[in-house]
Amino acid sequence: RLEIEDAPISLEEAIGGSNSPRIVTAAILALLEMVRLGVVLLRQDALGASIRIKKSSEFHQVIDRVGLEE
What we know:
Layout: E1 9-10, H1 11-14, H2 21-37, E2 40-43, E3 52-55, H3 59-66
Antiparallel strand pairs: 1-3, 2-3
């Protein structure tokens, strides 16, 4: 979804509203790796607020470089 939209999405939207601890944990670990690679930016405006995910300005270049596209 991030690839086709420029608007930030919430973590809840990204994981499809799942409450599974395994899915949430895997999603957070994947997001941290994407932050490390420079693919996405994360923002949380307040303690307990939703985490917003936005693709970085280098999104497509990084995806092409590391070969993450399907």
